[in-house]
Amino acid sequence: MATAQLNVRISEEEHRILEDLASQTDGILTKAGVIRVLIRQAKAIGFNPLTVAPVTQTMGEPAARRASYSSSSNTSNKTISMSIPAELEPKSELIKEFWKTKKGSKGQVAWKLLIGELEKIRSAYGLQVVAEQLELAINGKWQGVTLRNYEQFKPKNSPPPKKRKLTPEEKQAQDEREHRQRLIDLGLV
Questions:
Q1: Interatomic CA distance for residues 46 and 104, integer angstroms
Q2: What distance in Å separates the CA atoms of residue 145 and residue 133, rounded to the nearest whole number?
Q3: Residue 140 lies in a domain
Q4: Is residue 78 part of a domain?
Q5: Rounded to a whole number, what is the largest CA-CA distance in the chain?
Q6: pTM of this prediction?
Q7: Which residues span the domain enclosing 146?
Q8: Residue 95 is inside which H or E element, if any?
Q9: 30-63 burial by CB neighbour count: b if 16+ within 10 A, else e?
Q10: Of 124, 115, 36, 49, nearest to 82 (Cα)?
Q11: Whole-angstrom distance, CA of residue 111 vs CA of residue 132
């Protein structure tokens, strides 16, 4: 396969998003690799940047373990399937409210990034911090919520991260689940 080089200027925000996506692969993909995956995914779903319309949201019926939050475009037959993990379900109303008011991208990748970051915050600090961050994000019309930003700007009296030592078996199982989910999210499985 012949290759070509393309130099593109991107905004600081786009660069942060790209770095965040690459960091989620634990070194498996570089930023260039993430871009190649995104291009392949866009091609696979028939993405056309000239026909992208605003996304509207409707709440779907909860599934056995995950709540389904579906969103579809008025001008396209493509449906963006969004799910809220059971661990975040108690804050689903805040998540949906944030999604309605958030600035920036509202596609499948943005949804996965949001849920991934909320899960990181929940596992490190608990559901109360997730709720606080979502409320601040709604009121501040943030583009996203990230663990990195929370840790950088958290209040001095914030709770310390939860610390629980995992058994070697739990750690291995967790690593395998996370690795498999990253591969699924990147469309490699």
A1: 21
A2: 7
A3: yes
A4: yes
A5: 55
A6: 0.47
A7: 53-171+181-185
A8: helix 92-101
A9: eeeebbebbeeeeeeeeeeeeeeeebeeeeeeee
A10: 115
A11: 19
Residues in the chain: 189
* pLDDT score of 78 more than 60: no
pLDDT of residue 92 exceeding 60? yes
User: What are 148-174's pLDDT values in tens digits?
Assistant: 888 888 777 776 666 667 778 878 888
Domain assignment present for 151: yes
**How many domains does the structure of the chain reveal?**
1
Report the sign of the C-alpha dihedral through residues 130, 132, 133, 138, in that order: positive
Q: Are 84 and 92 in contact (CB under 8 A)?
A: yes
Q: In the prediction, which pLDDT does 58 show?
A: 37
Tokens of 116: 């991934």
Contacts of 189 (CB under 8 A, 6+ apart): 180, 183
